TrEMBL record:
Organism: Paecilomyces lecythidis
Origin superkingdom: Eukaryota
Protein name stated in the entry: Aspartate--tRNA ligase msd1
Keyword Ubl conjugation appears in the UniProt entry: no
Enzyme Commission designation: 6.1.1.12
Family of the protein in this entry: Belongs to the class-II aminoacyl-tRNA synthetase family. Type 1 subfamily.
Length: 688
């Protein structure tokens, strides 16, 4: 019947289209009204239609019982600001009527007829005094608005009563010359009374929005971060030839690059995306696509154990260059660093190329592949000097390597040094070193008042050689540590970790001052492959080794290419890490641009199974299409900003960071999957 009615109406559209549309609409409404009356008469039988009833019947709402709607109407049509604060303070004129937006401060009532209040601008960088008198109709309105509420203020500019010295002071100290005589005020929202917000209030991560609002340093860190990004972008955009900013997909596929991935299930049974560990493969494909220079501020995701400088999601400044070597990349990055430091920082950076240090040298001298070279404490082997009985007391290992470094005491006082080292070793920070299965550290305090200056266990000859080697002063520590006699692997040795931990503790305890300045250098000549460990997933091959960084890194020299056939563990990679003050700012490499060589590495060196090798087929096909030589790097952008601001944790330069457990306590993520969502994605929880 509906179709026939519509059909008859459609015949009339040619003569009177508007009337025909109305007729159709009225007919449909009538059908709905009849349906709803039927539903009302039989609610128990047709309960499923109650939702439709709410759609078609609009209940009457008593506005007097909903006062928040009246308040909201005022906020919907609030007056537009005539100035931002910064412009106002420099351009306003006496007697001018202005409208300003901001947050209301604490009100000071001088009498029943006069009140003062500070208005803080939306950036929370500037504020101005508002004067309200009983003569103004807004006087009582002001008193009804809670502190910290957002408001729009209308008033007349008047001269502030202040001394001439205040008005003539430098901008950093200046008390503004103007104040506002209040004419009207609009409350744009209410700040609740149950939230106590002062400059001293410390808000938990669950209230990150209040933390941001009260912590000026945190807000300034986010503004600084934006400046760093803009300068990096400007430097790369203006290079010759310029880099091209290109976004690569976030929904990728699972490929064994070296870190654990986050999987994203889909409604297609058994199918999932993986969030990218980095844009590595896409940017190499861009090099095969005729894009000469690429960059992006890339979001990356890694399901790793978290530390102060790690988050499960993070940002990196990612770039790649075709027809380029690692030298070209390092030169480009040095230019970016110089631009940042010359624009935003007071500390200078080296004028020439940053110095280079091999991986082997860094591990030998500092026990770390990202050492803080400012703190000294260089490590030296010493086992060839030590008596056997002393070695047996500090390690259960047979034929170990024993190393030594000097930790300078404070004020040449052995008692203070003894107190510091005892507190450190008894603290949780010292526990890993005490429990080292290869032996705890051997600690000796150099004391000129004792026989052999406190080095009696070394014997006369060894003590004399140590004095010549380390040149200790009264109150210095002599620290020994044993390790297995094996080639260096990984990012640090127990001695290197102890060196770093001792310095950190000494600064935290006030025993020594913090190191200053910035020491940039490149760590180069890493091993191309390292032994596989259970702690890291590697690339899933069966060779017992994995790529030290990722499987796309090229061997450094022709001799290293030959060594792939004889001893892959001795191959040196054309990889480079930018290090400053004990932080790895980024890592890059020249890539394997030949498809046959890349496949050989994956299949014959790493011994990936065929199904995993197939995961890289897209990359191999792109390389096979005449891909030119290329190299690139990724700078940890969060780390870079943290280093520039002297922050210990990247969480201090991220608006909404995750906790150490990878959780967002503010939004309560991650959340448990419901049975419905599990079913949607064809998933089922497995009992442990």
């Amino acid at each position: 019947m509906l179709l026939s009615s519509v059909g008859r109406s459609s015949l009339r559209l040619r003569a009177a289209p508007r009337e025909s549309y109305i007729e159709i609409s009225n007919y449909i409404r009538g059908r709905r009204t009849g349906l709803l009356s039927t539903v009302r008469n039989r609610p128990q039988q047709f309960g499923q239609f109650h939702a439709q009833q709410r759609l078609y019947e609009q209940p009457h709402i008593d506005s007097s019982r909903q006062p928040f709607l009246e308040q909201y109407k005022n906020a919907v049509e609030f007056p537009r600001a005539t100035y931002d604060f910064r412009t106002f303070l420099s351009e306003a004129s006496l007697g001018q009527e202005v409208v300003l937006h901001g947050y209301l401060g604490n009100r000071a009532d001088l009498s029943k007829k006069l009140s003062f209040v500070r208005l803080t601008d939306p950036t929370m960088r500037h504020n101005i005094q508002i004067v309200a008198s009983a003569k103004s109709g807004a006087f009582e309105k002001l008193k009804s608005i809670a502190t910290n509420s957002p408001v729009a203020v209308r008033g007349i500019v008047q001269q502030k009563k202040g001394s001439k010295s205040e008005r003539d002071a430098p901008d950093t100290e200046k008390i503004e010359a103007w104040e506002i005589s209040l004419e009207d005020i609009h409350a744009l929202n209410d700040f609740p009374k149950d939230i106590i917000m002062t400059s001293e209030t410390v808000f938990p991560p669950e209230q990150r929005y209040l933390h941001l609002r009260t912590d000026r340093d945190l807000r300034e860190a986010l503004r600084f971060r934006a400046q760093v990004r803009n300068i990096c972008k400007e430097e790369l955009d203006q290079s010759q030839p310029p880099f091209v900013e290109i976004e690569t997909p976030l929904l990728f596929k699972s490929t064994p690059e070296g870190a654990r991935e986050f999987l994203v299930p889909t409604r297609r049974r058994g199918m999932a995306y993986a969030l990218p560990q980095s844009p590595q493969q896409y940017k190499q494909i861009l090099m095969a696509s005729g894009i000469p220079r690429y960059y992006q501020f890339a979001r990356c995701f890694r399901d790793e154990d978290l530390r102060a400088d790690r988050q499960p999601e993070f940002t990196q400044l990612d770039l790649e260059m075709s027809f380029a070597t690692g030298e070209d990349v390092m030169t480009t990055i040095e230019g970016v660093i110089r631009k940042l430091w010359s624009t935003l920082m007071k500390e200078p950076v080296p004028s020439g190329p940053f110095r280079r240090m091999s991986y082997q040298e860094a591990m030998r001298r500092y026990g770390s592949d990202k050492p803080d070279t400012r703190i000294g404490m260089e490590i030296s082997p010493i086992d060839y000097l030590l008596p056997v009985d002393l070695i047996s007391k500090i390690t259960p290992l047979m034929d170990p390597i024993v190393e030594v470094f000097k930790f300078e005491g404070n004020d040449n006082d052995p008692k203070e040094t003894q107190r510091f080292i005892t507190e450190f070793l008894d603290s949780p920070a010292g526990a890993p070193f005490n429990n080292n299965p290869e032996g705890g550290p051997g600690i000796f305090i150099y004391d000129a008042k004792k026989p052999l200056c406190g080095l009696q266990p070394f014997g006369f000859e060894a003590a004399e050689r140590i004095e010549d080697m380390l040149e200790p002063d009264h109150g210095d520590l002599i620290v020994l540590q044993a390790r297995k006699r094996a080639p260096f692997s990984g990012g640090s040795t127990p001695m290197g970790d102890l060196r770093r931990a001792l310095h950190t503790a000494s600064v935290e305890k006030g025993f020594k001052p913090a190191a200053t300045g910035f020491d940039f250098f490149w760590v180069v000549d890493f091993p191309l492959f390292s032994p596989s460990t259970d702690a890291e997933p590697g690339q899933g091959g069966a060779a017992g080794i994995s790529s030290t960084h990722h499987p796309f890194t090229a061997p450094k020299t022709a001799a290293d290419v030959d060594m792939l056939l004889t001893d892959p563990t001795q191959v040196v990679a054309d990889h480079y890490d930018l290090v400053v003050n004990g932080v790895e700012l980024g890592g890059g490499s020249r890539r394997i641009h030949d498809a046959k060589v890349q496949e050989f590495i994956l299949r014959d060196i790493l011994k990936m199974p065929p199904e995993r090798l197939a995961d890289f087929s897209h990359l191999l096909e792109a390389l096979r299409a005449g891909c030119p030589p290329h190299a690139g790097i990724a700078l940890g952008f969060d780390r870079l900003v943290a280093v520039m601001l002297g922050k210990e944790s990247v969480r201090d330069v991220i608006a909404f960071p995750k906790t150490g457990k990878g959780e967002d306590p503010m939004v309560k993520a991650p959340t448990p999957m419901t049975e419905e969502s599990l079913e949607t994605y064809h998933l089922r929880l497995r009992d442990e």
